[in-house]
Amino acid sequence: MHWKALAPPRVIDDENSGEVGAVEKIGGKYYMLFGHYPAMTTLVADRPEGPFRKAKKNYKVLTGHTYFSRFFRHPEGLLACHFTQARDVEVSFAPIKDVRIDHEGTLRFGWWKENEKMKHQSIAVKKPVDPKAPVALLGNSFDTKQGIIIEGTLKLPKAKESPRCGVYIECTNDLGVGVLIDSTGVAELGPMKVDGTGFKAEKPVDREMTFGSPATFRLLVKGSLMEFYLDDILIESFALPANATGRIGLINAEETIDTLKAWN
């Protein structure tokens, strides 16, 4: 076999430094996962030689404590993998995602249906003692060392100025994290106290799409790592500031309580 090295593909309107994670032809376009650590971005071209341009929407497909995303073909469709990194630098293989291209050609990562096999023993969810509290802690102490999946629905706020809804993950060392969702589905993740105060947005995420209201959500927690999905679209993989204690709360989401299901 005789190989000829070609010039790198042209990239327009993007930083010069980075790493090519993967290139895949999807429909009539070429999609590149391009790494600007710690983010993975999406570039699109009509030809493999380029020019590649920034995706018009959802440009940063991964912005959490993640990297090295790859495409791979599967009999049921195109999938993607990536790693997720804890704050103590320990690296883990994240749950596999499916690749979703909408009618505008926007690429997003979604919940792969085969991840349902991660659900083992069902857990009865215990209602909060005070469902109207700013952070309504569920009555369970989940085994987050083994790993848990919690699912339910969130009724998004009616207006931009309305209080945001979401979930709370309690961590060791008196730490905690809130995932807050506004009326448009834009999320912010960051430290929060158990009384709902002290929230500091550490990671804003806008998947630039319309979500349902109520929208379904999935929360995965294991050790100090978590993932959050809304309407089966990955919002983010996120490294908690410390190991989760197993206490999970709801934020401005009293109607969510009766929709919750959980599994080890």
Could you explain the architecture of this structure?
This protein is mainly β and 264 residues long. It has 2 domains: 11-114, no CATH class; 119-263, Jelly Rolls. The chain contains no helices and 23 strands. The chain has strands spanning 11-12, 19-26, 29-36, 39-45, 52-54, 60-62, 66-74, 77-85, 91-93, 97-101, 107-111, 122-123, 135-137, 148-154, 165-171, 175-181, 187-191, 203-205, 215-222, 225-230, 233-239, 244-251, 261-263. The strands form 4 sheets. Strands 1, 2, 3, 4, 5 and 6 form a 6-stranded mixed sheet that branches. Strands 12-23-14-19-20-21 form a 6-stranded antiparallel sheet, with no helix packed on it. Strand 19 and strand 20 form a beta hairpin. The radius of gyration is 19 Å and the shape is elongated. The termini are far apart. The model has no long low-confidence stretch (mean pLDDT 94).
What are the SSEs and their pairings?
Layout: E1 11-12, E2 19-26, E3 29-36, E4 39-45, E5 52-54, E6 60-62, E7 66-74, E8 77-85, E9 91-93, E10 97-101, E11 107-111, E12 122-123, E13 135-137, E14 148-154, E15 165-171, E16 175-181, E17 187-191, E18 203-205, E19 215-222, E20 225-230, E21 233-239, E22 244-251, E23 261-263
Parallel strand pairs: 1-5
Antiparallel strand pairs: 2-3, 3-4, 4-5, 4-6, 7-8, 8-9, 8-10, 10-11, 12-23, 13-22, 14-19, 14-23, 15-16, 15-22, 16-17, 17-18, 19-20, 20-21
